[in-house]
Amino acid sequence: MELQDRTAHVLLDMRFAESAPIAVLPCLNWFGVWFRDTPNEDEYVSASEEAIIVELERQLVQVVGRCADGWAVYCIRIMSRGLAEYYLYSKNAATLSKVVSEMNRDFPEYRIEHEAKADPNWSEYIKYRSAIN
After folding, report:
1. How far apart are CA 20 and CA 130, in angstroms?
2. Which of 11, 12, 31, 104 is buried most, with the most CB atoms less than 10 Å from its CB?
């Protein structure tokens, strides 16, 4: 998929296609993870780093689940050259505020950032769902 400034692979959880927005999950959380290795021109992530990124994503989902106590859903992943972006909806901004500090303990060599904003209409999810359909 072509985004504003780059080519990316977008993975969208279609389980929410008919139910979005979910009123009890009005907060959009964005997590960005910058890769350490520079991928080849035809890759999003280098082969030498792929297993670590897969593990980082698995652990991110676990940490989010624990911090949110069931009040978050992981619905979008955008993979572009050198960057993975994860979008989750939660009940409020504070729900996932501690995720980055916990992730940094296990992945200190990675730049991991988090931003949260109100998106009660699930505009971000609907934007990508519309682009894919």
Report:
1. 12
2. 31
